[in-house]
Give the backbone structure.
Amino acid sequence: THTQRVFSGVQPTGGLTLGNYLGAVKRFVELQERDWETIYCVVDLHAVTVTWPGREKMAAATRELAAAFIACGLDPKRSILFNQSQVPAHTQLAWVFNCVARLGWANRMTQFKDKAGKNAEKASIGLYTYPALMAADILAYQATHVPVGEDQKQHLEFARDIAAKFNLDFDALDFFPLPEPLIEGAATRVMSLRDGTKKMSKSDPSDMSRINLTDDADTIARKIRKAKTDPEPLPETLEGLEERPEARNLVNIYAALAEVTPGAVMAEHGGQPFSAFKPALADLAVEKLSHIGTKMSELMADPAEIDRILGDGADRAAAIAEPVLDKTYELLGF
Ligand code: ADP
Ligand code: NA
């Protein structure tokens, strides 16, 4: 029996999208309001698995992501907010997990295939073992719940497999909980505004495909007005959206931002042409998002304060993770 503890991380790879916000950060803030311990991490070690952006950009991206978390409502007093590289227990535990996880498990990871591309021989070994480090991120805190988007479901299963195998192999009973994914709400997979079959991502070359949390009100509204859709008006009910991924995506975004169900959005807007629905969505998005960018700029003006917050978070995180690592080593006979 473990206390209910939430852990999640986001990579500081420059800029957060509406997908990261609705699929992850907005949920982080909601969980903070409940009576659970919440730990949120800027996973900077993960961010160098594909490319290293250079020292200055790396540091700036970490601070920018911390600022984004706070601007979205994360309270560093009520949650622990820190960056991964400051707590060595993550990588120490990851080594143990690299020795628990099997090659066959890693070979099944679809994100590695996506990110490595055609020439997997050229991918870093870090990208390949990324899921073991992610398991360590979560299990170093014996976290029981992990809010993520759909795309992380497979990695969470990997972490559960590691926890179960570790507990069995090292006679550890239920030392590591099997972390539960929290994949809920209307926007667990926000799609590109240019292509309803691709997920919205900060790595998409087209800036029109995504809304960035740093976009100003005019940019947010323009991107929604220009979002790709089919020529038909919205159907009367949800069922009519099944074969219409772009329309479905805009309805889901509306629902998540308004904190209502997609059914409720259809009850209000069903039958409308996009010339009416898009402006309604643009107004809602501007209302809910544009203050985040403003708040981020304010926070970014004081980098020393962000570093102080992250340093304090790292101390509190280490106070939980180090005893877990000690016990892990003890179980292995180290
Ligand atoms: P990215 O996928 O943009 O590179 P990360 O891998 O750091 O970013 O993901 C951070 C969090 O945001 C994860 O919980 C992930 O599931 C979520 N997320 C990313 N993109 C989307 C999306 N398009 N829709 C919903 N959630 C998403
Ligand atoms: Na991630």
